[in-house]
Write a sequence for this structure.
């Protein structure tokens, strides 16, 4: 990786959907650089293009035009399987609806990225158990999602996002389905991940959630409306030895 | 992704839907059960038939007036032929170089009595020549009929094991007189037990010298001549020599067909094989149809499964599953599903074949080929009918799949 090049570069990114005879410009030329170790929130009203941006950023979708470089690699025109490989290695997803496999226990859910990375069963189980320990769920490894609370489910999802040591943690409304207290725990976990030096990109429509990021990018009508660094609000009142502490320790 | 992981996931998915999996598999189970049962029974019958037909030995042929008759017309024509005589048998024994043992035999049913016990319609065989050698008759007791018995037209008899059991009730028979029809015979031997073939006892007979038989029942009966060749290699030439001798004696003009028949066990085997191979094809074909129906059911349920698990597929793709990972997962699942059905079918098929063998005279032979065929066919069908649903799953767009409710 080049020392000067940002982790991620969007240059004049466009995405056009066809709906019947009409062309919809979900992204109308977005340019953005993201450095390694940033904690960034992407905001915008619905229809602003933030979901499309997130899909392209997460390598789930390809742009219609423009360039997307990740870790010095041009990936706007990669095949489906090449994108799958990048998602596996570089991106850790955290979704609003958790997206855990309902019939698998927490451990197996966390193992999934390692399975597709081709890791052997023994090493994989160890790594997954470690990742679950960092989010404080060592005693819940054999529980299925329906036996876990919302906050616990999202922590399993965070462990899954971290387990293959990706460059970017990409969170889509990660607190959307959680109450405020549980949501704060999850945000504390992201803070800890950020402090560990990882890049966190969070898509949200809540100002309160975005206030924890160090940079906020606002989209409107498929374009960047504003892009500002900010003083991040720290999470208060999370007991020591909780999610933050453990993730911090794991990073050392 | 490793194969074992795919199998593990497949088994997990099957366990999660036990009843549905079972119902899905019913077609495959029935198909494989039928295939295994049919193959086992037919192979069992093959082994049984060849064992029984060749019990006499592979190098025995029989000459008689009728030969191998397959139609009523042939039978009516054969009725007009000249009888085969004792002289014909003696000519073969005397003139054929390739002939080993020669037996002349004539048979009819008659009542047999000893004391107050009467057995009805027992086959009474009049024999001359090397009957013990040709028929491979062993003795449980006493002696065989001798050339002397035959030449002197002695009223002596060797009785079958079942006749002995029924008449003498476990006591020795040697030296006792029995009555066949109105004639008294001295029992000199008891044949060893042979068991049954095709549901008929092979131990229900009485053997007497042919001349004595003719004295009782007359000489106007066509006899049959059974001949062994001196070795396996001269089996064909022994038949040709017998044919030439008989044609000459019976004055058959060159170019005309034989007015007698030559029959070998191999002919019965051929007839039997023709019959069973036709039945085999039909039965396996029917079972095959049920396997194909089973395959379509599997395809249907895999389509349902792919739709139900669209979100799971989306999650897996988001986490880095490639197309072939997803394809493999669903193919393995379909194959595991149908292989499970195949395995159940194999067990049921074996059980069914053994059950039929237990309650009917049909024997069963379970062969590895049948089992491998059953498992292979079911797995193959799972793979074949699993391709389309699996390919659909693999092609799903992760964004659409993740949003699927």
């Amino acid at each position: 990786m080049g020392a000067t090049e940002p982790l991620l570069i969007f240059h004049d990114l466009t995405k056009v959907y066809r709906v019947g005879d009409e062309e919809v410009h979900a992204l109308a030329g977005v340019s953005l650089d993201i450095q390694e170790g940033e904690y960034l929130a992407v905001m915008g009203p619905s229809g602003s293009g933030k979901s499309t941006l997130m899909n392209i950023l997460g390598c789930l979708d390809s742009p219609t035009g423009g360039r997307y470089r990740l870790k010095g690699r041009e990936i706007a025109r990669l095949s489906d399987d090449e994108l799958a490989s990048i998602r596996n290695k570089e991106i850790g997803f955290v979704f609003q609806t958790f997206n855990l496999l309902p019939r698998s226990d927490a451990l197996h859910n966390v193992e999934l990225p390692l399975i597709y990375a081709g890791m052997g069963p023994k090493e994989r189980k160890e790594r997954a158990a470690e990742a679950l320990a960092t989010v404080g769920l060592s005693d819940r490894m054999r529980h299925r999602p329906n036996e876990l609370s919302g906050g616990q489910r999202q922590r399993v999802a965070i462990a899954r996002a971290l387990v293959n040591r990706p460059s970017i943690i990409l969170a889509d409304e990660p607190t959307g389905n959680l109450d405020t207290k549980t949501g704060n725990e999850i945000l504390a976990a992201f803070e800890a991940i950020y402090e560990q030096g990882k890049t966190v990109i969070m898509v949200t429509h809540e100002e309160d959630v975005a206030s924890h990021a160090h940079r906020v990018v606002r989209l409107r009508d498929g374009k960047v409306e504003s892009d500002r660094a900010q003083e991040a609000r720290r999470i208060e009142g999370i007991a020591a030895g909780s999610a933050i502490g453990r993730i911090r320790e794991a990073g050392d | 992704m490793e194969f074992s992981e795919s199998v593990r996931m497949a088994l997990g998915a099957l366990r999660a839907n036990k009843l549905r999996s079972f119902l899905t598999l019913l077609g495959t189970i029935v198909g494989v059960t039928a295939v295994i049962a049919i193959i086992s029974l037919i192979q069992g019958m093959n082994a049984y038939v060849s064992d029984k037909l060749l019990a006499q030995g592979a190098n025995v042929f029989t000459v008689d007036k009728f030969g191998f008759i397959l139609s009523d017309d042939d039978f009516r024509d054969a009725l007009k032929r000249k009888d085969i005589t004792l002289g014909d048998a003696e000519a073969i024994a005397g003139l054929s170089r390739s002939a080993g043992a020669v037996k002349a035999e004539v048979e009819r049913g008659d009542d047999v009595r000893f004391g107050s016990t009467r057995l009805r319609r027992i086959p009474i065989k009049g024999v001359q020549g090397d009957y013990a050698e040709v028929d491979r008759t062993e003795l449980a007791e006493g002696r065989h009929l001798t050339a002397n018995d035959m030449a002197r037209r002695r009223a002596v008899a060797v009785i079958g094991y079942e006749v002995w059991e029924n008449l003498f009730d476990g006591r020795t028979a040697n030296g006792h007189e029995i009555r066949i029809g109105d004639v008294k015979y001295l029992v000199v031997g008891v044949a060893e037990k042979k068991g049954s073939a095709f549901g008929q006892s092979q131990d229900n007979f009485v053997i007497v010298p042919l001349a004595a038989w003719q004295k009782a029942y007359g000489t106007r009966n066509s006899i049959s001549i059974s001949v062994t060749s001196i070795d396996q290699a001269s089996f064909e030439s022994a038949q040709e020599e017998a044919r030439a001798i008989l044609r000459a004696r019976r004055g058959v003009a060159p170019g005309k067909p034989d007015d007698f028949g030559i029959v070998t066990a191999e002919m019965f085997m051929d007839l039997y094989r023709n019959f069973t191979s036709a039945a085999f094809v039909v039965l396996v074909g029917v079972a095959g149809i049920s396997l194909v129906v089973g395959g379509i059911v599997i395809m249907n349920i895999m389509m349902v499964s792919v739709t139900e698990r669209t979100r799971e597929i989306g999650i897996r793709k988001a986490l880095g599953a490639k197309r072939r990972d997803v394809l493999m997962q669903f193919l393995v699942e379909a194959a595991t599903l149908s292989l499970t059905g195949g395995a159940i079918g194999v067990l049921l098929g074996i059980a069914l074949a053994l059950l039929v063998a237990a309650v009917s005279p049909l024997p069963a032979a379970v062969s590895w080929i049948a089992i491998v065929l059953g498992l292979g066919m079911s797995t193959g069908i799972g793979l074949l009918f699993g391709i389309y649903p699996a390919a659909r799953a693999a092609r799903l767009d992760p964004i659409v799949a993740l949003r699927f409710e």
In short: Residues 265-308 of chain B form the longest helix (44 residues). The CA atoms of residues 285 and 394 of chain B lie 34 Å apart. The longest strand of chain B covers residues 99-114. The interface with chain A takes residues 1-2, 5, 12-13, 16, 311-312, 314-325, 398-399, 402 of chain B (CB under 8 Å).
